[in-house]
Amino acid sequence: MPSGLQALELEKFLPYRLSVLAQLVSESLHDLYAEPFGLSVTQWRVMAALGRFAPLTASDVGQRIVMDKVAVSRAVAGLMDRGLVERATDLKDRRRASLRLSAKGRAMHGQIVPIALKYEGALYEALTAEERQILNGLCDRLFAHAKLLRSEA
Description:
Layout: H1 14-37, H2 41-53, H3 58-65, H4 69-81, E1 85-89, E2 97-101, H5 103-124, H6 129-152
Antiparallel strand pairs: 1-2
Helix pairs in contact: 1-5, 2-3, 2-4, 3-4
C-alpha cells in the first residue's frame, strides 16, 4: 500500500458492520414470516409502516422505511393484488392517494407482529436491560446524526 493511505479495516468499519447486521437480522426475521405469509421483506416493511402510521401515501411509506420509490411501488402493487392494502384517493387533491391495510391486511399484520416481537426479544437476550437502554439511545443518536450528515451533503 502506498504510504500516506489509510487502511480500511472492513470488519471494524461502522457503516459496513451496521449494514451486515441489518441484513442478517432482516433475513432471519424474514425466514419466520416469508413462507407462512408469502411476503417479501419490502412488503412486510410496507405493512408494518401502514399498521403503525396509516393512512400514508406511497411516498410517505418510502420515507418511513427508507426504501426507494420503485421498490415501494412494487411492494404496494403486490399487496393490493392480494387484497392486503387499500388505496383511497384524497378528495381534496385527487393526485394524492393514501394507503391503509385492508381488514385482511390488518388480520395478517396482527399475526406477524407477535412473531416479530418474539424475534426482537430473542435478539435482545444477548444484552442486559441496561445495555438495551444504552443501545437504543445510541441508535437514536446515530440515526439523528446520520440524517443530519445526509442533509448537509
